[in-house]
Amino acid sequence: MNLKRTFTFVALCGYIFFANAQKLTSPDGSLVMNFSLNEKGCPTYDLTFKDKTVIKPSTLGLELKKEDANKKTDFEWTERKDKDQLDKKANLMNGFKIRNTRISSTDETWRPVWGEESVIRNHYNELEVTLDQPENDRYIIIRFRLFNDGLGFRYEFPQQKNLNYFVIKEEHSQFAMAGDHTAFWIPGDYDTQEYDYTTSRLSEIRGKMKTAVTENSSQYVFSPTGVQTALMMKTDDGLYINLHEAALVDYACMSLNLDDKNMIFESWLTPDAKGDKGYMQTPCNSPWRTIIVSDDARDILASRITLNLNEPCKIEDTSWIHPVKYVGIWWDMITGKGSWAYTDDVYSVKLGQTDYSQAKPNGKHSANTANVKRYIDFAAKHGFDAVLVEGWNQGWEDWFGKSKDYVFDFVTPYPDFDVQEIHRYAAGKGIEMMMHHETSSSVRNYERHMDKAYQFMADNGYSSVKSGYVGDIIPRGEHHYGQWMVNHYMYAVKKAADHKIMVNAHEAVRPTGLCRTYPNLIGNESARGTEYESFGGNNVNHTTILPFTRLIGGPMDYTPGIFETDCSKMNPTNHSRVRSTLARQLALYVTMYSPLQMAADIPENYERFMDAFQFIKDVAVDWQETKYLEAEPGEYITIARHAKNSGDWFVGCSAGYNGHTSKLSFDFLDPDKKYEATIYADAKDASWDKNPQAYTITKKKVTSKTKLTLKAAVGGGYAISIKEIK
């Protein structure tokens, strides 16, 4: 809902009156963008922040796929008459003239269904540039929106006689850096973001790429200097720069390829199985390319550019969409203690033919009725909303790595999982069930079963689904981040909305703010999450980088809350360690924003530390407002959040390899009220590797004038629950 909206339109300029260069200034004057055409008629822009260069002059444009000279032009097999023009028709990069420009301003506020604050301001100045390409008798529009914290731009392709259907060979949007910045990056890959972040100079990316690439179930690294967005950088003169995209719809996901001699990033789209990068029909447009910039790292976290560049909510009735705090049958299987599969005696599954009633249970299958009821009881006792169950459906014995089309049907349970009884039992306890749909990346199969699977959910009390896309995509040759898959993820979200189902997609394309338009997209993984703590561990500073990178596009289902950090206690053959203190696991519920938060450990481990578990029970999952108290990417993040419809506040701090000492001011509190703070902190001798479960809990009366010094250990943190005293 828009609360206020103001437009100010400035002149239209034609060829005769137009000066080639156009200047656009942010509402507060801190950012200035210049646009012009160079001597070749190529669109060019640059960007400064407080007179410091953010983007040096950079060119824009697209290269289209050359049309087949022998292809017939219609169903009558008419020979084409434009064979001599096919080379020049592939050019959408230069030869432009400016037809007109329009400058406007927008200042509005809107209310998200859920979010980090209850009201978001959308304030920008806009430059719309219409560019004619006389040689091809066609035109495009480049639209720039300049906010106080950054720039968004996109290409728009109006319908016209000479630009109707076209295929993208590559988009050539440049981002020319002003120096050899420090970057927080993961390898450019068409299929996965599940990498640890590398911190290096831009010039060091090539040399560090080999060690940055670690094994994954599906991956395709495209370049020795390619990186993924959201890319976070810091300049030597103190600027923080973030490159990403917004509103990725019917288009291939963008990565960035670095010319490391000239320090120029250029867009690099994900191809399809044929190598093409986008099939387009006008009218259409690209996603927004975003540049967030500030001299204060906290402003990067506070930016709402990604959301603001997406369309308003398209779901008329959102009453069924709500934040969820859940537990689930997951971590015991991730660590290897339990199993998704029902039996070890079936080596090849054919759904509808394999007779599980004749199979010998392996005794490790976690998704059995009795165990699920135990989780339901735990959720009900401690005030959780839902229970996730993975491995409940037939087919897990041969689900991975077989390039198998008909892998799951999403409705047929194993013999030891009673769907109706679980539905009855959970409903009686006031607990929702969370469905799990692992597709094994057989996307055609998922779409084949989707309507039936969603209806099955609705019939059996499942209001949300965790979907997964592990492995190589079927149709074979497609990539996780190509246009075809981008459209599939959107299809799944829209289809789920028809059934009033919320979606939490894992291994899907990274978020680009589409949760504003479709708020039933309540979560994504799309990065290296907690599961990797059982696969060798995440970097100690991982959660001090993710809010500056992955979370710029939307919330992450990071699945925090692991209290037993030694995985061998779950499974003696698993020697991995969670590289975090217990206190930091609490902090992640605040610093790793999501309206979907899991208490990911098993009940038995929480029962050993019930005093610390109280924070997970108390912490909110929907927020009235958020204050970013401290931030330095790779080092530390401290965030305070005000719970929606409550006077309560929660604070979290996550620290990296150097630990962190906070001099905390409580000036974000209401000066007319008093509060009691419960502080969950690392003990003096705490460390992620030697003493992760050493924590202290203290209570303290606080007001807006209170100041407090708190220390986070290496890989540690602290969490504070602040409740109003009435």
Précis, in short:
With 726 residues, this protein is an alpha+beta fold. Helix 6 packs parallel to helix 7 (419-428), helix 8 runs parallel beside helix 9 and helix 10 (582-591) runs parallel beside helix 12 (610-618).
Q: Characteristics of this structure?
A:
726 residues, 7-stranded parallel sheet
What does this structure look like?
It is globular, with a radius of gyration of 26 Å. The protein has twelve helices and 38 strands. A hairpin with a 5-residue loop joins strand 32 and strand 33. Strands 1, 8, 9, 10, 11, 14, 15, 17, 18, 22 and 23 form an eleven-stranded antiparallel beta sheet that branches. A seven-stranded parallel beta sheet has the order 29-28-27-26-25-24-30. The longest helix is centred in the middle third of the chain and has 17 residues, at 443-459. By secondary structure, it is an alpha+beta fold.
